[in-house]
Design goal:
By secondary structure, this protein is α/β, with parallel strands linked by helices. It is built from 9 helices and 7 strands; from the N terminus they run βαβαβαβααβαβαααβ.
């Protein structure tokens, strides 16, 4: 641990904390003195993260499993200070080619946000925050992006409304562009390095955004108690350039 202690004495829950942005945020929060509670779908990865970060406890479940998510928060000892939700992945496909089941599943992200808000509201100390993840990449409509664009547009409004209903608990949203994570690698496959090179050449920051960039913003939002109901972009300027 570093000498920084901005989160000393506080408990941070990370839903999806075993890899990528969630893991890096947990690592940053731990370095700032936080006690961690981590969840994830993969028990092996989760236990590895828990050992590395000396997590107080873990729980293995899929965040889209409503019963498991509700049970986790019901059994969670109160109080806690911050909850970050990184679980979930974007859904791509032509709107008119999706069947009903696919369409409903595409909105799981919004449902998870609502469920976390309901379940965590009585567990989080006043001034703590619920922190959700969204994106900037689908703000421009395009073929195959219809559902993702809809969710992208809905999340800031949902977060702002939750900030009013949850007060004095805070609610905030981080909107990321491309972040170099295992999820990005799984989505892009052999095209991953090409995408990295394209971003290095075109982004105003001339480098690829990594999980540590998002984690730094997440911890800042946790510690700055004046922030609520807002969306914070971290995409290296990706939405300012084509592609």
């Amino acid at each position: 641990m570093s000498g920084h202690t901005e989160l000393a004495g506080q408990t941070v829950v990370v839903i999806g904390g075993s890899s990528g942005i969630g893991l890096e945020t947990a690592r940053r929060a731990r370095a700032e003195g936080a006690s961690l509670i981590l969840t994830g779908r993969n028990p092996e990865r989760l236990q590895h993260a828990a050992r590395e970060l000396e997590a107080r406890s873990t729980a293995t479940f899929d965040a889209t499993d409503s019963e498991a998510l509700e049970r986790f928060f019901r059994d969670l000892p109160a109080p806690i200070d911050h909850v970050m939700v990184t679980a979930g992945r974007p859904h791509y496909g032509r709107l008119l080619e999706m069947d009903v089941a696919q369409t409903r599943k595409s909105f799981d992200h919004l449902v998870v946000v609502l469920q976390v808000a309901r379940a965590a509201a009585r567990k989080v100390r006043p001034g703590g925050t619920l922190l959700f993840m969204g994106g900037t990449g689908a703000r421009r409509p395009g073929i195959g992006l219809g559902i993702t664009s809809t969710v992208t547009a809905a999340l800031p409004a949902l977060t702002a409304s939750l900030a009013l209903e949850l007060a004095p608990v805070r609610a905030n949203l981080i909107a990321a562009g491309f972040v170099d994570t295992p999820l990005s690698a799984s989505l892009l496959g052999d095209e991953l390095e090409n995408r990295r090179n394209q971003l290095r050449a075109t982004l105003p920051i001339r480098r690829v955004v990594g999980p540590a960039d998002v984690a730094a913003l997440a911890v800042h939002i946790m510690t700055n108690t004046a922030l609520t109901g807002a969306t914070y972009d971290v995409d290296g300027g990706q939405q300012l350039v084509a592609g």
